[in-house]
Every structure is written in C-alpha cells, then in structure tokens.
Amino acid sequence: INLPQKVYVKPEDVGEDSIILQWEPSQDDCEIYIQIKSISDPSEDMKFFIKYANGVKVDNLIPGRTYGIGVATVISGNLSEL
C-alpha cells in the first residue's frame, strides 16, 4: 500500500489550537488514517479515518505543546506505514 503523497501544512493553516493537514491520495477509493500524539503526554492520542477528502482540520490542540503527526493509507482494512 502506497503512502499518501504530498502531505503538507500551509503556514496560514496553523492556528493557536488547530492545524489543517492536506494531502494527495496515493490511490483512488482509499481511506486516510491520521494519528496525532502529544510528545510530552503520550496518553493524549487522537485518531481520524478520512474518506473522500484531501484534507482535515484538527482542533483542540494545546498551545505550546509539540505533536507527532502520522498519516497513512488504508485499503481494505490494511494500513500503510505512518
């Protein structure tokens, strides 16, 4: 399974407590899986499954905190690498 292509964030899409992620799907008719984890508090974990979209706005982030963001492709229940 191929990873999503051209995953990016525009500077103007970064808010104080939100971020808009955008991507180009690697294949037609696939689902995108997004995982967001706080570096300082690994128990803070958000997961999203997105279908038929090339972007998503993630809200409720804590200002000043660093997050690790992983994006993967899902096809027939199989997940690519993040």
UniProtKB/TrEMBL annotation:
Superkingdom of source: Eukaryota
SUPFAM superfamilies with a match to the protein in the record: Fibronectin type III
Leader peptide range in chain numbering: none
Protein name: Fibronectin type-III domain-containing protein
Protein species of origin: Saguinus oedipus (Cotton-top tamarin)
